[in-house]
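Quarterly update, task 2.4: adenosine-5'-triphosphate-bound model.
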Amino acid sequence: WPYTIAIANQKGGVGKTTTAINLAAGLCELGYRVLIVDLDPQGNSSTGLGVSARDRKLTSYDLVVDGVAPDTVIKETRNPRLSIIPSNADLASADLEIMSSERRSFLLRDALQHPRLEAFGFECIVIDCPPSLSLLTVNALVASDSLLVPLQCEFFALEGLSQLMLTVRDVRRSANPNLRIEGIVLTMHDVRNRLTALVEADARATMGELVMRTTIPRNVRVSEAPSYAMSVLEYESTSKGAEAYRALAKEIAARRPAP
Amino acid sequence: WPYTIAIANQKGGVGKTTTAINLAAGLCELGYRVLIVDLDPQGNSSTGLGVSARDRKLTSYDLVVDGVAPDTVIKETRNPRLSIIPSNADLASADLEIMSSERRSFLLRDALQHPRLEAFGFECIVIDCPPSLSLLTVNALVASDSLLVPLQCEFFALEGLSQLMLTVRDVRRSANPNLRIEGIVLTMHDVRNRLTALVEADARATMGELVMRTTIPRNVRVSEAPSYAMSVLEYESTSKGAEAYRALAKEIAARRPAP
Ligand SMILES: Nc1ncnc2c1ncn2[C@@H]1O[C@H](COP(=O)(O)OP(=O)(O)OP(=O)(O)O)[C@@H](O)[C@H]1O
Ligand SMILES: Nc1ncnc2c1ncn2[C@@H]1O[C@H](COP(=O)(O)OP(=O)(O)OP(=O)(O)O)[C@@H](O)[C@H]1O
Ligand SMILES: [Mg+2]
Ligand SMILES: [Mg+2]
């Protein structure tokens, strides 16, 4: 069973997709074979890794809603160790369509436990979640070993955290008692912006050890990379953003057995 | 019937809440009496205008789901011309709860047409939407005269626009034939970032006149203001952010009769 990490936060634009793509690339550099699951109807992870619209005939929608075997929806990326299950707008109706199913919270977990996934030899799965505490996000939490929460260093950032933690508690009680918090990673960290210091101090005071040591600086190379269908590690390897995501991958990998 | 504008874009973190608060403040400066409806379970507009948790016993959830009269949920802000219907996490379950209702897309519109709203004399209503094309966002589009789309000057920005326009077309056909596009407002516009120029050129090429003349610059005062429960117009009146939102209010007001 590959180590599965959900990247979730219902606050929009905090760096979920950016973290999914670049953490996955960092884990690949360390030798892991990684699968990204794009669970956001916007399909930003899929676009950021260069999956064309043509290659999204079968997506995470078909996996979760129709129960197709995972090997039929997995796409390669430019990175030989990194694969993706892409998404598109079809996924927007998934919540409604699975609402009445008995196993509505377990559909993604069941799909990722399909025997045909084993042949790919993934050691890690990273799930990019949409900006809501919807049934899709619950599916990701039920399917995951841990949750990584990107927290933007801005005023509205801390507001939604308690709600997310309540959802985690509910998922632990009802479906996935082993779900851990991998941590909270501060994103778009900008020492020139006084809000960054406030949010960081607040987060470390209230969440303590849960806040990752690695912080991700605001770095224009990070936002440019997806327009070239690359991770920032590939696009500008010596940039501050690339170095930060490498450090994040190392910090998380240090807690796991080597690939 | 007050002129009603929905601020929507399913992409997260593009400046919906920031635009709702600061456009409303700009319209108040021009003499309009304005009501903000916070339709996002995160409640960022409510927090950004200083509505405490205590004051959110009755919220937009009660208005939409339970059909309480609007005058019981309206709260004052520091700005005498600006009021708000706040929200909190209760709203997260609204989509499921109204799903089976006959009038599920019209609930907000019905609520805002309640006769007891007339006594407040609002000339304009601004609706802050969550980052999804959910039933709540559809309710906002059905209740509105027009849609204002904040578009962040970043790579992923243009990707979701076609989906949003499809939703607008569906709402026009099924529930609100008069829904117009007020425009697309470029946010976090930063001339130092080469993506800004790309996104702006792309947006003006594909949407033409729909792109507002006013662009909103990335400006740290804008992100600091909500931590003081103020609009940026109040917090730092001569900042670039405040001037831009004043210009946006003027550009929109010029299309309307004077207050
Ligand atoms: N460290 C960073 N430095 C600069 N820009 C960044 C950084 N991280 C993310 N961004 C940019 O900020 C925007 C939001 O990031 P991203 O799309 O990853 O957030 P998200 O949480 O996935 O958004 P959504 O809620 O819509 O899914 C993107 O345009 C991205 O390129
Ligand atoms: N012009 C600007 N300059 C600097 N920062 C900005 C600007 N506009 C918005 N921000 C900041 O960017 C972040 C995202 O903005 P905001 O919360 O308004 O977006 P949103 O679209 O409402 O997000 P969500 O999708 O979560 O509802 C906030 O921290 C906000 O303070
Ligand atoms: Mg995303
Ligand atoms: Mg918002």
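Highlight for this quarter: The beta strands of chain B are 3-7, 34-38, 75-76, 82-85, 124-128, 146-152, 180-187.
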